[in-house]
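Re: export button greyed out
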Amino acid sequence: MERTTIDLWVGVFVALGVAALLGLAMKVGNLTTSDIGETYTVTANFENIGGLKPRAPVKSAGVVVGRVGGIKFDPASFEAVVSLNIDKRYQFPNDTFANIYTAGLLGEQYIALEPGGDEINLKNGDKIAQTQDAVVLEKMISQFLYNKASETTAPAVAAEKQAESTETGDDTLGSNPLDNLTAPAK
Amino acid sequence: MAQNIVGQNIVEIDNLSFGYKGRLLHKGINMAFPKGKVVAIMGGSGSGKTTLLRLIGGQIKPNEGEVRVDGEVVHQQTREGIYQLRRKMGMLFQHGALFTDLSVFENVAFPMREHTDLPESMIRDLVLMKLHAVGLRGAHKLMPAELSGGMSRRVALARAIALDPEIIMYDEPFAGLDPISMGVICDLIRTLNDALGATSIIVSHDVKETFLIADYVYFVADGRVAAEGTPEDLQVSSLPFVHQFVHGEKDGPVPFHYAAGDYKQDLMELDP
Amino acid sequence: MTRVGLLVRLARTLRNIGHRFVDRLWRLGAGARLFWLTLISSGESFRRPWLVIREVYSTGVLSLIIILVSAFFVGMVLGLQGYNTLQRYGSSEAIGVLVALALVRELGPVVTALLFAGRAGTAITAEIGLMKATEQLSAMEMMAVSPVSRVIAPRFWAGVISMPILATLFSMVGILGGYMVAVPLIGVDAGAFWSQMQANVDWRDDIVNGLIKSVVFGVACTIIALFEGYDAPPTAEGVSRATTRTVVTSSLVVLGLDFVLTSFMITV
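Workaround output, generated via the alternate export path:
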């Protein structure tokens, strides 16, 4: 075959390959929505991060505004220190809430930022003061059961408490879980 | 190292031994190839003739002894050194060994394109000249698959002389050719050798054609040079091996029967 | 059979196995040596890209048909099978995610590699083996041209370039095949198909990893094909056995490497 014909076909071949790659990147993957821009980093402390992983999305009003950077453990306060890399385009006030929510019922966990009303915005290196921990499934179930129990009369409560303790034999169904859940988050 | 021909040697083989896995193919071979002459290496199949060509070309190393080309010991050269030596050589392989994905023209142009910086116009002229010398200038557009055996060998010959080598080696150039093609190749080997002032080394077992053009012949048997001399000397030689070979006798030093036990015993034996 | 006879048979079998094992080790070493030689002889391939381009045509462009047709069918089957299972859990809209992830992460690189080994790999082995049998490689050597740099290295780089391109095309066409089955045929919502896919296929973790796999497979398959051809005994039987070995060895190596690479990628 002629030199030029082969060249043409190879050129077409490589072009197709590049086009397919671009197609995959744009249409199939999440390249357009990932953080290609510059980011600034803030930290947030949580008592329990649940299943939060690095590179998990940081959303506000449901829109991805950044990614979780690193997750470290602070041995002094026994809390998880999470770094958030937020797109530079978006500024958040100092009193923003950082909550850990779950996408869907059993999906992956992400950080939701609920802005406060402060006039001063968060800067690179700042720390988000108000955080809410991830919901741990077991605690949620026990809270639900406890709520149900406290609706009935007091002796019935005591009797049920007895019954539940003996039924499950689980110590976590004691008096503490409720307290933890309704205590103000730090 | 008996030398009956006058002239400086361009290739010398000195006490060469070569073999694999304990079996020696060559046991102390001495040969000399003077400049400008056509020298033949003959012998039975499997006597290691083609291997000698490979040793000269540096494709394999001897166990003992030396092969010298233009005064340089081949197996002591660096890779670059061997490549330099090879540029002085041209080799015609047994079945031509043309590159099947290139046309006749491109096959002959190959060594020129690889080793010279000549412009395309000059290469074109040279290629056509070489092809003309072997009578195939009109076939330069064909692909190797379209050539007959004789034709492809001639193209391979044109390729072998593309860079005007000083040494041209032929590996069984007459094998499997029709009489006309044989005559053509025979004539070309001699003519080109004289025209280029080169030295030709022919490995063959074709007595008639080789004796027509060779200046000197070495006979190889049992890993040694069994006999040597001009074709005229060997034609009338009384050495049994030479006589059997030259006259194509059925039995002699090279036996007819492969080693076997007693005939009667074999026939009388019951199946095991 | 006598006890001695049995022992002799056993000894012979063991020696056979040992011999074959040593032979495989030797081939592995020789193959590694050829790989190294190919890499250091690659200068010519970069100085004369036409050599590589010609081989990309042979290995890549000529494999397009089989790759694209297979991809389309694989994608369609994924669509059917996936839908069949997902709709049982009411998650039929995740069909896009299923097809895309299966293709981009695994089926694209792996199936392409297997098809490549079968089509392009055997062609390379046969070609090189035949060149060796007809003394073309020897002739090149005698003309002071290194066959590794002129014949082997360009084919190597052509394979390494072709494989990722083919794998990417496989994934893309497969996804289209899945789309064809899911949306027009079955009736899954087109918007849901693409949006769920976009939300769940990650550029770095999925697409780039798939690309890395296909490059590694390209290196493996091509060098195996080249080695088998280069090493084949110069007879008809030798070459045909070599082509069979190319397919078998390439397939096993690809699947093994797939496991190794996947385990790396999943933990990262």
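Chain C touches chain A at residues 50, 53-54, 56-57, 60-61, 64, 100, 104, 161-162, 164-166, 168-169, 171-172, 175, 194, 197-203, 206-207, 211 (CB under 8 Å). The button fix ships in the next patch.
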